[in-house]
From TrEMBL:
The chain crosses the membrane at residues 27-48, 68-89, 96-119, 131-152, 159-175, 181-198. Keywords: Cell membrane, Membrane, Transmembrane, Transmembrane helix. It comes from the Bacteria. Signal peptide: none annotated. This is Chromate transporter. It is found in: Cell membrane. The keyword Membrane applies. Belongs to the chromate ion transporter (CHR) (TC 2.A.51) family.
């Protein structure tokens, strides 16, 4: 009998495409690495998840990865943790969910525990400050790339309304300084209306 680390679980997908069986140890390693390098918020998850789970493992589709992050961001709690729970459960049920959850929580737990013991040294260290500044610049570039990729995909699909929603949301938040909660609520209502109208077309 194979060990738990080598146990294979058949992936349940929503699309008619071949996706490799999931190994819990592979799921643990991949989510651990993504959690360790997710700096800057939920949008940084998109390229990391795409590179690992879409391009390398072929576990989920590109569209599924975007939907997963969207659901994780719209749910209460930490985006990375929410995404790992959804992904793990989809890949391997409850075992996958707990595996991905533990792997996601472990890196920040280790880092914060280490930093708590040497907080004064980290807070006043010039090189640590410069390191964080450099990471901020890198995260900004990654988020900008995600935005550009999303725009390009919408342009290719020639869907005018999603583009208008994106542009309108940006203008509302940046130019008119509208509370982001109101913008999300309006976008959600528009999405529901569009889905309902599409059912009757």
């Amino acid at each position: 009998m194979e060990s738990n680390n080598e146990e294979k679980v058949q992936v349940v997908t929503t699309e008619n495409e071949h996706i490799e069986p999931v190994k819990l140890w592979t799921l643990f390693k991949s989510t651990f690495m993504i959690s360790a390098f997710t700096v800057g918020g939920g949008f940084v998850l998109i390229p990391l998840m795409k590179a690992k789970f879409v391009d390398e493992y072929h576990w989920i589709s590109d569209k599924d990865s975007l939907n997963l992050v969207a659901i994780a961001q719209s749910s209460p709690g930490v985006v990375a943790v929410n995404a790992s729970i959804i992904l793990g459960y989809r890949m391997a049920g409850m075992a996958g969910m707990f595996t991905a959850l533990f792997a996601t929580v472990l890196p920040p737990l280790i880092m914060l525990t280490a930093i708590s013991y040497f907080y004064e040294a980290f807070a006043s260290n010039y090189y640590v400050k410069m390191l964080l500044k450099g990471m901020q610049c890198g995260v900004t570039a990654v988020i900008l790339k995600v935005v550009i990729d999303l725009l390009v995909k919408q342009f290719k699909k020639k869907l005018v309304l999603p583009l208008l929603i994106m542009i309108g949301s940006f203008i509302g938040a940046y130019v008119f300084d509208i509370n982001i909660i109101y913008i999300i609520l309006v976008d959600a209502i528009v999405g529901v209306v569009l889905m309902q109208s599409a059912k009757y077309d």
